[in-house]
Amino acid sequence: MFKYFKHFKQDFPASIVVFLVALPLCLGIAVASEAPPFAGLLSGIIGGVVVGSLSKSHLSVSGPAAGLVTIVAAAILDLGYETFLLAVLIAGLIQFLLGLVRAGIIGHFFPSSVIKGMLAAIGVILIMKQVQHIFGYDGDPVGEMEFFQPDGFNTFTGMIRPFQEPVLSGAILIGFICLGLLILWNSKFVKNNPWLSKIPGAVLVVILGAGLNALFMNIAPDLALGEAHLVNVPEFSSWTDFKDKLMTPDFSNLGDKRVYIVAITLALVASLETLLSIEAVDKMDPHKRRTSQNAELRAQGVGNMLSGLVGGLPITAVIVRSTANLEAKAQSKMSAIYHGILILVAVFVFPYIINLIPMASLAAILLMVGYKLTQPSLYKAQFNLGWDRFIPFLVTIIAILFSDLLIGVSIGLIVGIFFILRANYRVPYHYNEEEVETNGSKVITIRLSEHVSFLNKASLQLNLDQLPHGSTVVIDGEFTKDIDYDCLEVIYSFVEVADEREIQLTLKNIPSLESFHRK
């Protein structure tokens, strides 16, 4: 652990940026989940300090996840909050066990085009969701990421909502001034300046936003923003007051089967969202470090067990915070730990100061994070890779925009698998075909590749069916180390009909069906 402290100069400023992004998200997700706001802060603290300490990831940040809002809200309504906490505790135990049996390997089977589509979609959603906040409409929770919003609007119609309300000129001024400063801070002029480049733009924007609103209060009260448009952190007068807010699970409902249904659902969805986020963050890591996904599941499991024990919400690795962490130049997992500590300190030491921050300033930060996730160069790069990668990428984006993260990724994965199967069916990459003239007759040699899987079955069948009538054919498995039984059946089925088509067939180094059975 101590080796990570050498990056303090990079990690601590980055943690401030993540803290500023995470704080309203923790509160917003709690509100959207119909849970106490304190529960969101509590899970943010645990996600930062506990999961951050146990995780092997260098850049991911954990906390309450927007992708679980619908499941959590329904579970709280059905079970009651204390029984819901029991489900969170059991879900954490299931995650820990999944890590022990090495179930994290599933994260390696998601095509990169789908992962990049997920990141791009989150970027688009961040931009669309933050438009309303930067124009001063703060009726929807900041952490709400679903297509259908709590107020009955959806992602697209919600963008129109600010213009149907009285104009908040103060929010617009603060939001666009802060956005302009962030754009300037991402310019070469600032990046090449040895002094300015050391100041995190997001931190500067938050200070500027709070300062502008204070200025408006003194010289232009009509522009000043009220409490409804500022961050709203609960205030605690003492440690006893804090402890009184903690809640424990209702263990008397251990026999309720609904608890286990919710626990299994939470464990599977949270694990999948974590694995997707970890895979995405590893792809963006400039040092290309790889995270042990089984260790991550164990860390998330411990975090969720603790969160359920003290009254928090379910925790996952969160791509929005992780991306903010990466963009802020964090170098190690200490940034995630520091951000958790900062949430704890903020709750006790300076809630009044945090509550001076305008939501419009935070919206400007998230708009920039969103743009970097979905910038045009990403679309161009995917398009240049070909339709078999661009279509799953695009479908994933559209599906997520009109549903939610996990449904969208599932649809993108199905489309990606279709293209994989299509490629295996049409492209005979598992063998080389040679045609030579010997004594005036055509000889076709089919050399099987090193590994012939069931995915090659359709392609192999198609090409054997299309061999010319009366030809001489050699099927050579000299270089084949592993051949699937289904493919072997295709070859020997062809042996049975070769005479009928007057095909002279020779098998070289092809194992018999009987030898396969003996294995």
Automatic annotation (TrEMBL):
Keyword Protein biosynthesis listed: no
Keyword Translocase among UniProt keywords: no
Pfam families: Sulfate_transp
Bilayer disposition of the protein: Multi-pass membrane protein
Entry's transmembrane regions: 12-32, 38-54, 61-77, 83-105, 117-135, 167-187, 199-220, 259-281, 336-369, 390-421
GO cellular component, one term: membrane
Lineage: superkingdom: Bacteria
Keywords noted in UniProt: Membrane, Transmembrane, Transmembrane helix
SLC26A/SulP transporter domain location: 8-376
Biological-process GO terms, alphabetical: transmembrane transport
Compartments in which it is found: Membrane
InterPro entries: SLC26A/SulP_dom (IPR011547), SLC26A/SulP_fam (IPR001902)
Protein name: SulP family inorganic anion transporter
Taxonomic lineage from the root: Bacteria, Pseudomonadati, Bacteroidota, Flavobacteriia, Flavobacteriales
